[in-house]
Write a structure and sequence with these properties.
- The protein is built from 15 helices and two strands.
- It is an all-alpha fold.
- It has one domain: Farnesyl Diphosphate Synthase (Orthogonal Bundle).
- A two-stranded antiparallel sheet has the order 1-2.
- The longest helix has 28 residues.
Amino acid sequence: METALSRLLPAADIAPQRLHDAMRYAVLGGGKRVRPLLAFAAAEVSGADPERVEVAAAAVEIIHAYSLVHDDLPCMDDDVLRRGKPTCHVQYDEPTALLVGDALQSLAFHLLAENELADTPFIQLDMVKLLAAASGSRGMAGGQAIDLESVGRALTLPELEFMHIHKTGALIRAAVLLGARCGRPLSEDESAALDHYAKCVGLAFQVVDDVLDSEADTATLGKTAGKDAAHDKPTYVSLMGAELAKAMAADLYRDAVEALEGFGDRGLRLKQLADYIIRRSH
């Protein structure tokens, strides 16, 4: 995936060099690549061509990278460390970081439109629509807006879930569904099962993130630990405590794995990734 991203990003020696260098800095050389891994795992369910999947997976990861660049800006979370290195605006400057996010978002949709990724133009257009919805005001950006509005407030569990279904879950769900759409069409039941799996692991990812933010250290996380509590943000840990949050993550994991039962061996990679998401240390 690192090789694919390096190939699909503009080269650093192409004008404007500083912007392209900063884009590569923001995307390459770090990150768990969970979203691309989920795209490839879902592609095994539909028998998709890996060359198609790597472009779709790159598009999702590039959207994710843009969101991190913007999240770290002083006007948002004001963070100085990401993936164990200085954040983009610290390494470069704020105006460059803002443009990096803008350019990465555009590049993701350029990749989806430029390459043949599905069996029909209709399916490919649906893929563009899916990523746009997952990234925008009814997805990731909307979840971030709710997050900013919630600082210092005590949210109920449904309110917290609503926020994270959008902020974190939407893009994870998109990764799974885009990977699957690169292959043969799935039945209605298969699509529903895959969607349920994606929603469960997307929410579980955020619950585990909240637990790690409260329990792990900065060196392990590769980003500033404890910043949610420091910024008085509502989290699953602040709402229900670490032990109940871990139990909730385990319940979501069981639901996700149960959704895969009809896929047999084709769902093995998705199950392994659910295991990783629950057990990860950073």
